């Protein structure tokens, strides 16, 4: 979201608020002293909303831009965490194939390399990276139960990363 988009969104919110305040001001003023008094209150309330919205536009635009950037970074880290989980599970399927001889040594080596490269990316959260390192070490050792527990810990770390929102 560009700063121009945030300013446009803020302008639309300001316009909606000023229209709502003007309508409410007109209703209150008309109920108190007639339509002329209601029109004056509507103009004052709507104008006050426009002036207030104009005076805080830069701060609001900066906060909206920061919130969008934070959400994008969190989404990117979450996506990488899921990618690490998928790569490690793919490597686990190569280490423990469903049928004997179902995975060649070249395919296993390629899946191992992909899992290690994915887990080594800089933007992967620390907890997920540590859990992935433990899972990859357990898979390299070849113990089925230890590997399963390590992959479950990785899944839990990814779940915690995702549920932080």
How is this structure best described in words?
The protein has 165 residues and is mainly α. The chain is 85% helix and 0% strand. It is rod-shaped, with a radius of gyration of 28 Å. The two termini are 20 Å apart. The relative contact order is 0.10.
Determine the number of helices (DSSP H or I, runs of at least 4 residues): 6
Low-pLDDT stretches: none
Largest sheet: none
Distance between the termini: 20 Å
Number of domains: 2
Q: Per the principal axes of the C-alpha atoms, what is the gross shape? A: rod-shaped
Would you report the number of β strands?
A: 0
Secondary-structure element sequence? HHHHHH
Average pLDDT, all residues: 89
Bin the helical content.
over 70%
Give me the secondary-structure category.
mainly alpha
From the alpha-carbon coordinates, what is the Rg to the nearest angstrom? 28 Å
Q: Percent of residues in beta strands?
A: under 5%
Quick tags:
mainly alpha; 165 residues
Brief sketch in words of this structure:
By secondary structure, this protein is an all-alpha fold. It has 6 helices and no strands.
Mind sketching the topology for me?
Elements: H1 3-33, H2 35-55, H3 57-95, H4 105-119, H5 126-141, H6 144-162
Helix pairs in contact: 1-2, 1-3, 3-4, 3-5, 3-6, 4-5, 5-6
């Amino acid at each position: 979201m560009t700063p121009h988009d945030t300013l446009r969104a803020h302008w639309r919110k300001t316009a909606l608020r000023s229209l709502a305040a003007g309508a409410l001001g007109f209703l209150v003023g008309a109920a108190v002293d007639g339509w002329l008094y209601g029109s004056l209150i509507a103009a004052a309330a709507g104008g006050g909303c426009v002036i207030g919205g104009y005076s805080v536009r830069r701060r609001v635009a900066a906060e909206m831009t920061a919130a969008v950037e934070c959400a994008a970074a969190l989404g990117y880290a979450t996506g990488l965490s899921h990618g690490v989980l998928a790569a490690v599970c793919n490597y686990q399927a190569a280490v423990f194939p469903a049928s004997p001889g179902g995975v060649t040594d070249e395919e296993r080596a390629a899946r191992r390399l992909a899992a290690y490269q994915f887990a080594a990316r800089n933007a992967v959260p620390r907890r997920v990276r540590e859990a992935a390192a433990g899972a990859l070490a357990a898979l390299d050792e070849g113990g089925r139960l230890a590997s399963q527990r390590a992959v479950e810990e990785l899944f839990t770390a990814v779940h915690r990363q995702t549920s932080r929102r």
